[in-house]
């Protein structure tokens, strides 16, 4: 199921315009059925260009679905942000229209989001109070590898942008987690080390629960997830946060809620290489979280690699009919760090074994048949 190897020459102009996706893999794509998902295959937009929205998330607004993700470019340099965050929209979740670059990187070398920074896992939510779209993302400053471990935020009046960058930084400086123990606060802990300057924030998502939004991110050198509440305008933290699954080594969190309980997909820490997926459950978004094991059902290879992918988001859908169960789509990425632009998307229906969400491979599926055994 691994993506095919390709080798081409792409000029700088085509990279920056995003046309390199078509040049790189145009001949490899097969046209999708109007209502069908083809996990792991090249996924073209309605103009025939490969969708370029990695590590992304979705929201519903104005009668359309909106997909925001990292715009990758060719080669290993494409793992840095050379363009920005790309936006697409769709009426049916299969056929996507290119809406352009929602948040471009800056040409100002003093900007935290200057070209060449690392900008990952953008998530956009709509705040009904402020009537603004709010984008959060994991940010690493240019030339510093993954040492900055910051969270960035931008806002816009429309889902396609343009988004206006507000600020970036560590999380909740000078504040202890609400559930921190005396042992957690000991001077030799990573939590205490980062107390004054703020907590590290790497792989992340934003989860909206009613009128409250939560920022969930890998922290403490990726050892522990932290779950931080956002202020009412959702552009900053309000100072309340907790440690979740301490020393569990989780990243790539993707949350959803159903039947009064909270579920979270995550992955282990193996860099760009895929690993066995994980799923957790809790009665409150702040936990405590209980492990439910590996959600993948399939071959040993499937279970070891989560279908050669890593979680990024869970999309809730309305029931197929009134009174039926809610439906959820597991969204994941197949990373190709050596050819960043050729990363692929793995979308699968979330199925259930009792109270445990599980994932099974589908070569092709539709919203009509995806949840049928």
TrEMBL record:
Any Pfam family the entry gives: Glyco_hydro_43
Example of a GO MF term: hydrolase activity, hydrolyzing O-glycosyl compounds
Alphabetical list of Gene3D superfamilies matching this protein: Glycosyl hydrolase domain, family 43 (2.115.10.20)
InterPro entries: Glyco_hydro_43 (IPR006710), Glyco_hydro_beta-prop_sf (IPR023296)
Annotated GO biological process: carbohydrate metabolic process
Recorded family membership: Belongs to the glycosyl hydrolase 43 family.
Protein name, UniProt field: Family 43 glycosylhydrolase
Species in which this protein is naturally found: Sphingomonas zeae
